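Continuing the series of single-chain predictions for the mutant panel. This is the parent chain; the variants come on the following pages.
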Amino acid sequence: MNTSKKQPADYIIGADIGTSSSKALAYSLKGEILCQHQITCTTKHPRPSFSEQDPDEILKAVTGAIHAVVKEMKGRNPRCVSFSSAMHSLMAVNGKGEPLSPLIIWSDGRSQKEAEKLKAQKAATAIYTHTGTPIHPMSPLCKLLWWKEENRKSFKEASRFIGIKGYVFSQLFGEYPIDYSLASATGLFDHTALRWYDPALDLIGIKKERLADPVSPLQLFKGLKKDYAKQMGLEPDTPFVPGAGDGCLANLGTGVTMKGELAATIGTSGAVRLFIDKPITDKKQRLFNYLLLEKEFISGGAINNGGVMLDWFRTHFMKEGGGQTSYDDFVHEAMGSEAGSRGLLFLPYLLGERAPMWDARARGAFIGIHYKHERKHFMRAVLEGICFSLFDSVRILETPKRPISNVYVSGGFTRSPAWVQMLTDTFNKEVKVSGRGDASSVGAALLGMRALGIISSWDQADKFIPVTKTFTPREKEADLYHRNFEVFSRMYETLMPTMHEIAGWQHER
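Parent structure:
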């Protein structure tokens, strides 16, 4: 039984609609994580390059995680529920809000042909400049181009094209919002004018009325449908905050809110991000620029191939005795090899790659294999390759006019001090592990605090994000990684024609 409507408890629910799972946590107004829950979700790959999820399964996971938190908080109603969400998702709904398609997620590469065609056009530069989103199959812009060309009947029948957060809110409130932050990751939204970018819409041949309705990340939604309120154990007038994209909120959730501070995340994928007050215009279009709030941008580069590379290796090469090695065992065995993996380099582009090359046809490779290499060397090379991929964007982000003073890390890899030390040596900068719990969920809770007026600036939010450990680069290892990275950074351009030829063979299967 919930307590009085007039006396909500002193906590906020931060909810993250992720790719592999949906998470929710209870965050006290003092910055304490009181409890947290996670419900996994399934991704299907019905065809090569396709990555799809069931939107109703995700909705059930979101509401289930929130209910679990409320239940553990003994039914006390939160001040608000605030959201983080994975970016770049897209689905079609009819006029009743019912799904006409699966949810196409960020890692889906079906629009590769459309992305490459658009990238060669003059319009690509203007779209990148105005929207901040590189031209790539991940973006809803390219997904919609594919939809129009390859699934015309469905394209015409759809009442709206929305992302997963828009679907969740449509079910909970009967509205179709998209916060400015998520909109800025679509390739369709002018991130300085804060409205849909007409030239991008014209390119697709779609009206803004067929997309979600852009709103401030701080807007409060009330009037939760009674059946969902009961399902989650919430009062119907509980405020819901649309929040922002998971990348932006991971920055906030690790305390990265000042110039010169870099956030690095390795989970299933990975990213490096700077907090800045205006977009970085990269002539080669290698960096993204996403909004957190108006005139607050997160710029950086994301990689497809993070912790998922460990999944790949464990699944296919570590099933001795019918079992499967854990992540901790993987890292432990990998660290049995010396730094540099005896000259073995790994290009971890198994899922194509985003930053800095934005090439869906990139492919993975081990380079420098020698007779004396053992399994542990391949495993360490996988970890080092992920770190090198992130550093590939760091070297673009950092300039003499834009120095990086502090690095804060989050994501599943922080459970391994040895892996964090490897990243520290690769970046050759002091690295701090900050915050507790899921960074995007914490960031969502802090955004909820700001929406309610509990805090008025991110300066006040810093006190909620403790630094739990600091890592210092080791000179010998840093020098070795600098040498190895110089070779790593040349290998993509060298192998690109071969990668693309092989990708063509694979696509034909």
